[in-house]
């Protein structure tokens, strides 16, 4: 789809995107670069980063990748410093790294709950904290009165309540609070704008294509008021709006991009089916050679089947839906 923005709308801007090697994060990085920005991607898997950077460079775009874990402050500091050293400045930070899995509260161990908060909430704050000195007015490569931009990728789960998502709902509520608080304080003190984007179910992701085939698309569309699902492009366009001069007076807002799905949230899977469905996902992932290590049906870190935990605690976002007697899995990796 053709972008409504000028191709040079972000000319010579420098951006860092966490979780930028795949999924929504990669699409955001791609669109930022196609519109003139030079982009750095941060992620834990070197091979994924290398592939993503190569894809961007094949289009003649300016891109570089740095491996790191947003949960580790030393990694955050190192990657941000390397980005500024490479580009001489930082204008835009996109916090897209996230984790999710499906679990009933009574089956969710505190370890699993904490893991998602560490990635989503603490990881987002850690990146913001380490980026402030580069994004504030008067920072490296910045004028004395012009600050940068932070975009935090959130969700809508906590706007009402979502079945089997207590951990993610809590984590994203924290992300939204970070967005508002930093927008107030850093906007006033450092001219840094801080905004969020809350995606809904996005159809053109690797996990969605693998676990919810196109034959099920009609049923998925019927779950949303607009009778269609979003694309990664939709999220990237929201990011472009915030990063461009069109969004220069937007601060402290979280833009919902979900087709209105959050306005109506039915009970999409009976509780008794949650564990059985997790086993189905685990078998599919193992058959595909993805390297998932699952041993029990209890949600709590490395032993949770249906998650994408590896030795480095990688996580997939999993969203389950139910329409009649057919259960569908919507999964998108960040």
UniProtKB/TrEMBL annotation:
GO terms for biological process: fatty acid catabolic process. It catalyses: a (2E,4Z)-dienoyl-CoA + NADPH + H(+) = a 4,5-saturated-(3E)-enoyl-CoA + NADP(+); a (2E,4E)-dienoyl-CoA + NADPH + H(+) = a 4,5-saturated-(3E)-enoyl-CoA + NADP(+). GO terms for cellular component: peroxisome. It comes from the Eukaryota. Keywords: NADP, Oxidoreductase. InterPro entries: DECR2-like (IPR045017), NAD(P)-bd_dom_sf (IPR036291), SDR_fam (IPR002347). Its EC number is 1.3.1.124. Pfam families: adh_short_C2. Signal peptide: none annotated. Residues 289-308 are annotated as: Disordered. GO terms for molecular function: 2,4-dienoyl-CoA reductase (NADPH) activity. PANTHER family: PEROXISOMAL 2,4-DIENOYL-COA REDUCTASE (PTHR43296), PEROXISOMAL 2,4-DIENOYL-COA REDUCTASE [(3E)-ENOYL-COA-PRODUCING] (PTHR43296:SF2). This is 2,4-dienoyl-CoA reductase [(3E)-enoyl-CoA-producing].
């Amino acid at each position: 789809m053709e972008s409504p923005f000028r191709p040079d709308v972000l000319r010579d801007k420098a951006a860092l995107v966490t979780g930028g090697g795949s999924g929504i994060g990669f699409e955001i990085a791609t669109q930022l670069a196609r519109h003139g920005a030079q982009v750095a991607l941060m992620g834990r898997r070197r091979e994924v980063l290398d592939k993503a950077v190569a894809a961007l460079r094949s289009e003649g775009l300016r891109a570089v990748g740095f491996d790191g874990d947003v949960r580790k402050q030393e990694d955050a500091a190192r990657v941000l410093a390397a980005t500024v050293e490479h580009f001489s400045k930082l204008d835009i930070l996109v916090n897209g790294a996230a984790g999710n899995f499906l679990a009933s509260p009574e089956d969710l161990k505190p370890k699993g709950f904490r893991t998602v908060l560490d990635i989503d909430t603490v990881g987002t704050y850690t990146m913001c904290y380490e980026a402030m000195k580069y994004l504030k007015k008067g920072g490296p490569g910045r004028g004395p009165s012009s600050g940068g931009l932070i975009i935090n990728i959130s969700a809508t789960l906590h706007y009402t309540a979502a079945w089997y998502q207590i951990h993610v709902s809590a984590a994203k509520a924290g992300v939204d609070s970070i967005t508002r608080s930093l927008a107030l304080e850093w906007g006033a003190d450092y001219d840094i704008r801080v905004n969020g984007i809350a995606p809904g179910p996005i159809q053109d992701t690797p996990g969605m294509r693998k676990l919810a085939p196109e034959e099920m698309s009609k049923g998925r569309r019927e779950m949303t008021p607009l009778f269609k699902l979003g694309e990664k492009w939709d999220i990237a366009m929201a990011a472009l709006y915030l990063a461009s001069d069109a969004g220069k007076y937007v601060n402290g807002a979280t833009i919902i991009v979900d087709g209105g799905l959050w306005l109506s949230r039915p009970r999409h899977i009976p509780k008794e089916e949650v564990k059985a469905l997790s086993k189905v996902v685990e078998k599919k992932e193992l058959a595909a050679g993805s390297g998932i290590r699952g041993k029990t049906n209890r949600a709590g870190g490395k032993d949770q089947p249906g998650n994408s935990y590896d030795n480095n605690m990688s996580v997939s976002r999993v969203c389950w839906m139910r329409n009649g007697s057919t259960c569908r899995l919507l999964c998108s990796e960040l």
